[in-house]
Amino acid sequence: MTTSKFSKYWTLLIILLVAIITVGGIVAWSRYSGSQPTEISISKPPSQEQLNKIYIGGAVNNPGFYPLKAGDSIEALIQAAGGTITNANLSGLKLYILPEGEEEEPQKINLNRAEVWLLKALPGIGETLAQRIVDYRHQNGPFQNINELIKIEGVGTTTYEQIKHLITVAN
Hints:
Elements: H1 2-31, E1 50-56, E2 64-69, H2 74-80, E3 96-97, E4 109-110, H3 116-119, H4 127-140, H5 157-163, E5 167-168
Parallel strand pairs: 4-5
Antiparallel strand pairs: 1-2, 1-3
């Protein structure tokens, strides 16, 4: 009799352990399924000073290096890059943080995508010239090369020489 009671308790104990493991597995799987976004946070944020620079490229309006500070969200970084293009697939998001000491490439402004506010950041380009660039693009289609910029009234050779290393017409 003692052997059957002993075996009965072990059987009940094993069934109970299997049930606990099964329920725990189901709960863990439902809480951490791949369809839900994963939040990335820094456990002990450093000061609000600039931590580093981050390259944002691909399906954004103005790819390039942007300052990265503690507390910056991915959405804020994408907005700093001019937002995403119309058919952007955000499920393939990749980040590259520039290591300290590595030199960054100069950021270029895409004449075919940049809005007035961004074009105004170029040396020698104010509100009026920036608007003319956008108007030219809307009337004549995308720029085929950066030399077309000289066709715009008010953009002379001197201005073009100042900014040619800062602009692109890449898609």
